[in-house]
Specification:
Blueprint: H1 13-43, H2 48-60, H3 72-79, E1 84-86, E2 90-91, E3 95-100, H4 106-117, E4 136-141, H5 146-155, E5 163-165, H6 176-189, E6 192-198, H7 212-227, E7 231-236, H8 258-261, E8 263-271, E9 281-288, E10 297-302, E11 305-309, H9 320-332, E12 337-338, H10 339-348, H11 353-363, E13 366-374, E14 377-385
Parallel strand pairs: 3-7, 3-8, 4-5, 4-6, 6-7
Antiparallel strand pairs: 1-2, 8-9, 9-10, 10-11, 12-14, 13-14
């Protein structure tokens, strides 16, 4: 590169020509990269073939020489120790997520966190004192619920000047993929100390089940790191399968597993009874990158807002074997009983005979073959009895 700053001589001609050719090729590769990127944005398609082509072009623009790197000291100086907004629940400088089924209170919980992040509410939902200095929160709302947010935050006593809404209105829904730089500039311009995105699914045009969503999450994670504050995403859980438990797990998060990959804390909210819209909500952390998850909490939703308390616990489900055991104890409480009569009782209760035999083994039921009288006949049959009756 110093050739251009030296007095040109014949001795320099070969090196100078090679430099010019190198930069000419590099400009051509850069032009190809720009054209490919424009095509990706135009078609909304970013499959493995296009990604591989773009990576090859990026490698082609790298010049020979030392490769840049960062030392451990530089990394530690930039990131520092993990700091928490809501201790144990929401870290600063990273992505966090609130996930749950419809009607479980995801947005309401997001609004409640805004109250603490702005200093308007002096405690966190679990009762811990909020020691953060008062801040401002940028709300990126994508489901046309801005008015409801203002109403809820007013009800919580949150100063209207302590939060503001990002780009987008009734005629323009914000697109994180295209407008991330605008959102970040807005946050810096207005001094936002935290960002709430509600919801993730409404804020992009990527396919949630494919790798395209990765770029959205990567950009959000990088933005949180630069802002040094929390970026909290509200997201939906997929519909529960018939044989799945009611608890929301990482497998229930809608879309690709990439969605939770970049989130350092994932908070799940759900009710223990399917279809219940008024019962208590369980709040638990289902992913915690930075340590042991805190104990679960609970809250109820009323006209006056959220009331937090102990986490509701799911009652242990009664299995068919449990039902068979309960039936046997009830039938044999007063003494031995003929097996045929037990079979009839089990059939009437809708319990299979195989289940009854397994329950028999569990309870160590004793079976003895002996004579019995039926009318004027004397017959042989098996009698079951509880161990104490042996």
């Amino acid at each position: 590169m110093n050739l251009a700053n030296k007095t040109f001589t014949v001795a320099h001609s070969d090196g100078y020509a090679a430099t010019v050719r190198d930069w000419s090729k590099r400009r051509g590769v850069l032009s190809a990269m720009q054209a490919l990127t424009a095509k990706i944005h135009e078609n909304g398609r970013y499959d493995s073939e296009l990604r591989a082509t773009l990576e090859i072009l990026q490698l082609a623009t790298m010049r020979e020489g030392p490769v840049d790197f960062r030392t451990a000291e530089q990394i530690a100086d930039y990131y520092g120790a993990v700091s928490w907004c809501w201790p144990g629940w929401v870290p600063s400088g990273y992505l966090s997520m609130i996930v749950g089924p419809q009607g479980a209170g995801k947005s309401y919980l997001g609004a409640r966190l805004v109250g603490s992040l702005t200093g308007s509410i002096p405690t966190w939902p679990d009762g811990a004192r909020c020691d953060l200095p008062p801040g401002r929160v940028l709300i990126v709302e994508t489901e046309e619920l801005r008015g409801l947010y203002v109403e809820r935050l007013d009800g919580m006593g949150v100063d209207r000047g302590a939060y503001f809404f990002g780009p987008g209105d009734e005629t323009h829904i914000v697109n994180l993929w295209r407008e991330m730089p605008v959102i970040e500039r807005l946050a810096q311009q207005e001094g936002a100390t935290a960002i709430l995105v509600d919801s993730l699914s409404g804020a992009h045009d990527r396919d949630e089940d494919k790798s395209g969503i990765r770029q959205v999450l990567q950009r959000l994670a990088a933005m949180a790191s630069r802002l040094r504050g929390p970026v909290i995403l509200v997201h939906h859980a997929r519909k529960r399968g018939q044989l799945e438990p009611v608890a929301v797990t990482l497998d229930r998060v809608r879309g690709s597993t990439t969605i939770t990959q970049f989130c350092r804390a994932v908070l799940a909210v759900y009710r223990l009874k399917e279809g219940d819209q008024t019962g208590p909500v369980r709040l638990e952390m289902i992913k915690s990158t930075f340590g042991k998850p805190p104990p679960a909490a609970g809250f109820t939703i009323a006209d006056a807002g959220l009331t937090f308390g102990e986490a509701p616990e799911e009652q242990e489900r009664e299995t068919q074997r449990d039902r068979g055991g309960d039936l046997l104890r009830a039938l044999l409480e007063d003494g031995p009983m003929l097996q045929k009569e037990i079979e009839a009782e089990a059939k009437g209760a809708g319990i299979s005979w195989s289940t009854m035999t397994r329950s028999k083994e569990t309870l160590k039921i004793v079976s003895v073959r002996r004579k019995y009288t039926l009318g004027s006949d004397t017959r042989m049959g098996w009698f079951w009895s509880l161990p104490a009756d042996k």
